[in-house]
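As a warm-up, study this chain.
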Amino acid sequence: MPQQPAGWTARLADWWGIDSGWERVPADPARAYRNDLWLGAAFVVVSLVGAELARSIGYFEDEPAPTWLLYLLSAAGAAPLMWRRRFPLVVLSVVYLHFLVVGLTVPMVTILVPLQVVYFVALFSAVAWARDRQAMVLVVGAALLAMFGWLAWQFAVGAGIDGIVEQMGLADERPGLVDPGVAFTAYNLLINLAYFYGAVVGGQLMWHGARRREQLEAQAATIERQTAELQRQAVVTERLRIARELHDVVAHHVSVIGIQAAAARRMLAGDPATAAAPLATIEGESREAVAQMRGLLGTLRGVEDAAGSAPGGRAPEPGLADVPALADDAGLDVEVRVVAEDGALDAVPAPLGLSLYRTAQEALSNVRKHSTARSARVVVRVDRRPVRRGDPAAERFPHGFAEVEVLDDGRPRPGSSGTGLGLVGVRERVATHGGIADVGPRATGGYRVRVRLPLPEERP
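Now compare it with the structure written out below.
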């Protein structure tokens, strides 16, 4: 069933944040409260200076109160702002109580501009920083009711509208379209409405803005945490996949070692010279198995709790010689070029060939999903030429290399950005074999994925 729209009471409660349960506190409370102390002290100084300037121009000429009392009342009205964010509702209550008491006894003090600003800031701070929103609504409502009640009392019981109009010299004339008494009342009402409306609405908007910022920060932290978890899971999954593949390769080496050991044992008694060949094979196979196991352990060392296994048996894993077959299933116009001597692809060790095959597979899948390109080019290279002395590649690729490169000339397709987890797997494979990867946009347009892995020393 479609959700019914909330009533006006629910919308009003949501606007005031009554049922939100969120409390606004400064990001750095110690610094915020220290700044409030300085702000309150500054308002005290400004209020004292304003009182003296007003006294100097005759503002308190008809005021019987002594000068020191004027200063004291001015400072007392501004001092509570020192705690405006620590105790916002208490500060509002104290400041507006000061307004009512002083307004009834020494009204000229409350009309000073610095104190008018103080009353505005106190109301604004109470709405913006009150942690208990229900109490805020009650306290602010009581303050507003008291203010407008005081205003009505001033008009009705104080000097009166007629007396004020007479003092202004407008009792017998009407300069505008509206009666002077009505105009004076409406004018004061308009000013006070704008004054209190600005403080209340401005403070509430600030509170809503702070709550939205905190929600966005929490959502961003959650997204970042989930992204990191997905990346970690992708790394674990890829490493487990590498582990299964290398397990098959190492198992193959161990099987060969067992067969050759049995053959050598039988030959030792009758023809020791002939037994040297199986023993040499055992030596080479064992070294290669140990090297592959070290690479596996180095890759998986950083992963914790990577337990789990994939079910069932699998078909033989593809190798470098199977890369050209990817063109048939890519869904693109793929050109495959092989730069290698005859038989060189089959001679590449199985773990290296599988890693290069998976790299080409992932790169072509990315072209199909995330690029506007309709064609791609795959280059497979195997180079076992001796590395010349002084060549920068001598240290990393002393016995040659096997490489796969996937190029396209497209642009990123709008709205199809991936998670990047596939490229994480590519880099994990490269790190396993100690190779290098070049992944990124091309200067001439398009995208390049190139992975080069070192070949082991060729055994006789």
